[in-house]
Amino acid sequence: MAGLNILSQTPSPWQLSASPTSSSLSYSLRFPHFYDFNNIYNCGDFKCWKIGSTNFPLSGNPRAKRHPLSSQMLPHLSNSSGSGYSWMQDKSASCDNFSPNGKKQGPLNAVSSKELAQVSSVDDLYEFICSGPLISKIGLTSEKVAESIDKWIEYGLRLCRLFQLNQLALNEAQKIRIYHYYIPVFLWCEQEISQHSSKFKEEEEIPPLVIGFSAPQGCGKTTLVFALEYLFKITGRRAATISIDDFYLTAEEQAKLRDSNPGNLLLEFRGNAGSHDLPLSVETLTALSKLTKEGECTFLTCATFQLGTASICLTNIQLHPGVKMKLPRYDKSAYSGRGDRADPSEWPEVEGPLPVILFEGWMLGFKPLPPEVVKAVDPQKLQLEMVNKNLETYYDAWHKFVKSWIVIKIQDPSYVYQWRLQAEIAMRADGKPGMTDEEVKDFVSRYLPAYKAYLPTLYSEGPSGSDPEHVLLIDIDEGRNPILGC
InterPro entries, alphabetically (predicted)? Predict the structure, then answer.
């Protein structure tokens, strides 16, 4: 839904527009497959020191004061400001070689905090990491952080390069986003993949783990997934990224949905349950699950499965391990912003073997509710009733494939309106076409009934069909940063 956005309410360089030569890719590029991760990985004069796996004399008592890392373990560097120990190097301040879509991108700016982060040593970084709200949630202790501090340093450097941040001048919001959010979530994903793989015998093929990301529009989930795919890339693993947006109905099919539900504003345009091509979802997720190793692709002419009460026949579904496949994409700019499925010739290709699939969406994990609950949310218009009925078929199409979940929780659904308004104001200020304030209000109003109806259950019970042991719930504030849950 949203373009890539990290840390700021100001225009983000990750909100990309069309390349003049790629009309079918003129929609906001949230597709990491079009970025040259190898170029990022090799850019500049990158060096990262290794701290090693030394056992540090740290207390196991979480209330005890953490013992600082020994200064003998710190890399000694000097910079022009005269600070002795720095955990980031001067030459890694930018990555000029990385230009997604052929465009140079400037550094990201975080308006939520202009104060520079007070981090001048590995010891400072260690203390900051351990203070993060997700550390205990993902099963880490101060000892484990100390033992893996070299990984934290390297991942932080890589992410700063990816987002063209000056590692020596991170502000507080940027530091939080990298070390309290992106890296902890990546480490949790690694744990989930490891647990998933351990369930299979050595001679068995291991299907990729599907990790679902359920998060409201504008909260930064696309940027999070983008960062995660990059971290998987630099650690030698392929990841496929797919969004529920990719499964929207074609423009023609959406028009039929609108005509068959006259007066229902929730189904007039794409977005709510009912506006997705569920057979395409099943075909794509099933084929992705077969990308377990390198080899020739084989296809079956037709495969039948049950979707609710309907029997669906799919063609071209991949049934055996194959080497690559194309992922559907949606062009939101088509038909003056109404949208249409992108031409298949422009769909990105993903290759096996895949250890992980990152599947994200604003309504991913929503469960259908009893009729009386739906009526309480929408007492007069009764437009949510059809959306709720449509949602009954989404478990078989989406949720049954997801084995691990990341749920990003917001305190107030009105944040969605504020975030969207910020994005549109920024676009207009940049001379680009953007919705007026009234258009933003109308746009968001078509999603708010679903948020009000389904978010309470999502937060209290977890996503549809989920195992509580494999759900990471992340509370974020209005600035999109993780906070301690209430």
Answer: P-loop_NTPase
